[in-house]
Write a structure and sequence with these properties.
- This protein has a seven-stranded mixed β-sheet, sandwiched between helices. Strands 9-10-12 form a three-stranded antiparallel β-sheet, with no helix packed on it.
- The longest helix is centred in the last third of the chain and has 39 residues, at about 255-290.
- Helix 1 (about 25-30) packs antiparallel against helix 7 and helix 3 (about 80-95) runs parallel beside helix 4.
- It is an alpha/beta fold.
- Residues about 1-5 have low confidence and may be disordered.
- It has eleven helices and twelve strands.
- The protein has two domains: about 15-25 and about 270-395, Alpha-Beta Complex (Aspartate Aminotransferase, domain 1); about 25-265, Aspartate Aminotransferase, domain 2.
- The chain has helices at about 25-30, 50-70, 80-95, 110-125, 140-145, 170-180, 255-290, 320-325, 345-350, 355, 370-395, and strands spanning about 15, 75-80, 105, 125-130, 150-155, 185, 205-210, 220-225, 295, 310, 330, 360-365.
Length: about 400
């Protein structure tokens, strides 16, 4: 290809998909490694030092996760990831709410595991309200207030959207839920460690975290469950009573330790990292717009996490564009929805013109992104767009 996007077979592409996953921070890995070999005890073994040692490490990690979101250690339940946390929160809280509260409120742009959990509840006889979003990707608080009633058991609205990166008004949502006696759950997989979260001041009752979105290991996550006032949860699994009976099964000590360490690093570096990523994002967008002025940004730019951009180009065929970007690891949307045929449900909910629905790119900048990578990526995308348009014009003339 003449656009410079081609990469050597032995050269890895520039990674700009930090919303899909993050590499494990070396500082996190260093803390984890001993728990695979030297310190291999089961944290639930109460009869010997190997077990006590592992239990202490898991409880330290629980405190580190809690500190990131303003919770207490006893309110943290370890899970396999945010998908499990979301399922446990939504199904568990709704089923435990009682016959008088059989209504759930969520949003059209939620992660698929939230939407599918709500559809499961609908098949069980629950009523679910799916709130729309505006062109900026944000819900209307007045529409949420109108949807709430004395029958509402749970509201589940994600803190940060995984495709367009917009930040919902979480504190205001929490206040409305508290006023109506409804429990409030937020999927914070894309928010934890990136923006400040305080479950107490924001009136959050349930909050989901994923390890691999915050430079921790895959296969571990957490669910915050408020203790005062207590949020009743019906478990999804039966077993040996681990995690206060809410999530049975052996807690993987190495992964829990890794999640705790990742949360501790994020808490220490969040403000500085946000400032750096905002600078890189603005640099990328300005460079891209100078080369391709008609780039169309999806979602509100100001109310967005620093590392995210989601954009399209008019009348560009998305798959062709991706084929020209072999030197970049970017995505067309959520990795968890990659098997879905058709345009993103998030972009469709924004009411975008059809010209933009099939060629969106999600660029995710992260902790290890450099200025040089940002500049090169913007140039590669601009070159690919110009090349595709030249090819299309030549085809039309032929």
């Amino acid at each position: 290809m003449s656009n410079g996007a081609k990469t050597n077979a032995t050269e890895m592409p520039i990674y700009l998909d930090y919303q899909a996953t993050t590499p494990v921070d070396e500082r996190v890995l260093a803390v984890m490694l001993p728990w695979f070999t030297e310190k291999f005890g089961n944290p639930h073994s109460r009869d010997h030092r190997h077990g006590w040692q592992a239990e202490e490490a898991v409880e330290d990690a629980r405190r580190q996760v809690a500190a990131l979101i303003g919770a207490t250690a006893k309110e943290i339940v370890f899970t396999s990831g945010a998908t499990e946390s979301n399922n446990l929160a939504i199904k568990g809280a709704a089923r435990a709410a009682g016959e008088g509260r059989r209504h759930v409120v969520t949003c059209e742009t939620e992660h698929k595991c939230v939407l599918e959990s709500c559809r499961r509840l609908e098949r069980e006889g629950f009523e679910v309200t799916y709130l729309p979003v505006g062109g900026d990707g944000l819900i209307d608080l007045a529409e949420l207030a109108a949807a709430l009633s004395e029958r509402t058991a749970l509201v589940s609205i994600m803190a940060v959207n995984n495709e367009i990166g917009v930040i919902q008004p979480i504190a205001e949502i929490g206040r409305l839920c508290r006023e109506h006696g409804a429990k409030f759950h937020t999927d914070a997989a894309q928010a934890a460690g990136k923006i400040p979260l305080d479950v107490k001041t924001m009136n959050i009752d349930l909050l989901s975290i994923s390890g691999h979105k915050v430079y921790g290991p895959k296969g571990i996550g957490a669910l915050y469950v408020r203790r005062r006032p207590k949020v009743p949860i019906e478990p999804l699994m039966d077993g040996g009573g681990q995690e206060r009976g809410l999530r049975c099964g052996t807690v993987p000590a190495p992964l829990a330790v890794g999640l705790g360490a990742a949360c501790a690093v994020a808490a220490d570096e969040m403000a500085a990292e946000a400032e750096r990523l905002t600078r890189l994002r603005d640099r990328f967008l300005a460079r891209l717009r100078s080369a391709v002025p008609d780039v169309h940004l999806h979602g509100d730019l100001a109310r967005r996490i620093p590392g995210n951009l989601n954009f399209s180009f008019p009348d560009i065929e998305g798959q062709d564009l991706m084929m020209r970007l072999t030197g970049l690891s970017v995505s067309t949307g959520s990795a968890c929805s990659s098997a879905t045929v058709g345009p993103s449900h998030v972009l469709s909910a924004l009411g975008l013109d059809a010209r933009f629905l099939h060629n969106a790119l999600r660029v995710g900048l992260g902790r290890f992104t450099t200025e040089a990578e940002v500049d090169r990526a913007a140039d590669m995308i601009a070159a690919a767009v110009r090349s595709q348009r030249t090819s299309s014009q030549a085809y039309e003339r032929a």
